Amino acid sequence: MFANFRQAMAWVHTWFGLVLGFVLMAAFFFGSLSVFDREIDRWAVPETRFPAQPMPSFDQVLWPVYQQLRAHPLDMAATARRVEGEIPHPDTLPLVSLYAYTTHRDPVLQIGGEFAIPNKPLDASDDHQHVHGWASIDPRSGTYLSQDKLQIGSEFFYPMHYSLHFHWQDLGYWIVALAGLVMLVALVSGVVMHRKLFRELFTFRPHKRTQRSVLDLHNLTGVVALPFHFFFAFTGLVIFAGIYFPLGETMLEPLAKQHQVLEAERTGLPHEPAGEAAPMASVDAMVVEAKRRWDLRGMPGEVGYLFMDHLGDANGYVSIYRAGNDQVALVGQGVHFKASTGEVLREDPPPTPVFAINEFLTGLHLQHFKHWLLRWLYVFGGLAGCVCIATGFVFFVEKRKKQLAGHSARLIRWVDALAVTTVTGMVVATLAILVANRLLPADLPARGLWEERIFWYSWLVMLAHALWRSKAVASGLISPAWREQSWLVVLLAVSAVLFNWIGTGDHLVKTLNDGYWPVAGVDLFLLACALVAACAAKILRRREGLQQPLSPRNSGLQDNLEVARG
């Protein structure tokens, strides 16, 4: 079938990359935005624009907040489909566990909990009889923040890069996982194809023909960020291994449950409630003790995650975890207390080598550490991946469109339209949700849902526009949709900055002078995006003017000779 191994790898690289490259583009792009998801949240929710706060006092601030927490209507509805009878009113459900989470970049506090329900499950194997509630609060006062305000960074962009917001049967996770595997295959096959990797690291000829210049850029971005691309694809698969291999939901479920019981006995953290009521000791005193123990271990720090289980029961316990912004591993150094007395039940020992590697790989991917230069390197690495994928699309189209000019051009028109939609169209949709965030009325019911709809509708419109304007591709020309959507990117990016100024008064001069980088950084990034898009649109306009429709017989040979001469 193939003359040699390199040709086989070239086929794998081309077609695997083409089929799932569109998913990879979304994963890399929204993954890059997720590096600064909390900062995007500050831009999107102006009432949260205040300095980051440490975990507040549990006894004085958080406990009264949890008294007001109720099961979320969405989870109530989802659970109602799995149990017999009607679930009691949320006001009557007892809170049996709770959590609070924050980072060095979060001015707001994320809280949540589980509420026990008396209903029996429809499926006897379903042993999780709880409903959940969650909220965001202002840790300075304990005030609840509106649930209609979509935190675009952490609640939309971040889940988008690993689930595509396609939650039916967790299919989005599986599609991204398949794309991650294809990414690893593409990286290996790309290395096999390109024998002169070192030379390609220093080769970029922007003034050559489009096919040659985009291939140079494809190779350059692929080689420069090769380690970054590999470890992100690999660690992404590692993090979600529990979804891809759900041992607890297979024939091994009894063993998984037995392991949980044995693990509870080993650690001294009760797996089941005792059924005996008990008061709760001061959690603030437990926090002081946890901080003292961290200090003795040479790692002073603040609380990042707090968890309590079996509330009001004699077996209740409190787990306090140190914020890990000075380390790669995500969380660690947990200290666990008996809830009723404040007695230390367990202090987490150093992790085993295998567990330490897992924590390191997870932290390496999720990058919750406090290192701003490294965070920006993550962004540039992710955007380099986007450029690599986008130029791969363009090279595929440029190499074949003139060979197919005038006949059998349906495939190439679809590929080009999907490429436009995945590159410029995705950026347009991203900017559209930011503009909508600034223009929609603050008291609009289901405001966050409308923002999400505008994102998806904008993306669909960009697909329709790219298909409509793809006729030029059938004639061997560049689709004008690339240029037109680039100008739309310019318009929307500048509009988002202006509407933020008009709606909140936080213009660049003010935010830079105040040193409030979460908002200033987003505005600057939007303006940089507009500048890049304007330059791209001008270059595309110039190249469109130089092109002429060519016959399929001569154009394919000419382009192939050009690339071969390199």
Features of this protein?
single chain, 566 residues, alpha+beta, eight-stranded antiparallel β-sheet, 9% strand, globular, disordered C terminus
Average pLDDT works out at 86
| Structural category | alpha+beta
- Rounded radius of gyration (Å): 27 Å
**Beta-strand segment tally:** 8
Helix fraction? 55-70%
Number of domains: 2
Q: Strands of the biggest beta sheet: in what spatial order?
A: 4-3-2-1-5-6-7-8
Shape: globular
Unreliable parts: 552-566
Q: Determine the N-to-C terminus distance.
A: 27 Å
Tally of contiguous helical segments: 21
Give structural notes.
With 566 residues, the chain is of the alpha+beta class. It has two domains: 5-47 and 160-236 and 368-565, no CATH class; 51-149 and 261-355, no CATH class. 59% of the residues lie in helices and 9% in strands. It contains 21 helices and eight strands. It has helices spanning 5-34, 37-44, 58-68, 73-80, 152-163, 171-193, 197-200, 210-224, 226-239, 241-244, 253-267, 283-296, 353-366, 372-401, 410-439, 447-468, 471-474, 480-504, 508-514, 517-546, 552-565, and strands spanning 95-101, 109-116, 130-138, 143-144, 303-309, 317-323, 331-338, 344-347. It has an eight-stranded antiparallel β-sheet. A hairpin with a 7-residue loop joins strand 6 (317-323) and strand 7. Helix 1 (5-34) runs antiparallel to helix 5 and helix 9 crosses helix 13. The longest helix has 30 residues, at 5-34. The protein is globular and about 85 Å long. The protein starts with a helix and ends with a helix.
Give me the secondary-structure topology.
Blueprint: H1 5-34, H2 37-44, H3 58-68, H4 73-80, E1 95-101, E2 109-116, E3 130-138, E4 143-144, H5 152-163, H6 171-193, H7 197-200, H8 210-224, H9 226-239, H10 241-244, H11 253-267, H12 283-296, E5 303-309, E6 317-323, E7 331-338, E8 344-347, H13 353-366, H14 372-401, H15 410-439, H16 447-468, H17 471-474, H18 480-504, H19 508-514, H20 517-546, H21 552-565
Antiparallel strand pairs: 1-2, 1-5, 2-3, 3-4, 5-6, 6-7, 7-8
Helix pairs in contact: 1-5, 1-6, 1-14, 2-5, 2-20, 6-9, 8-14, 9-13, 14-15, 15-16, 15-18, 18-20
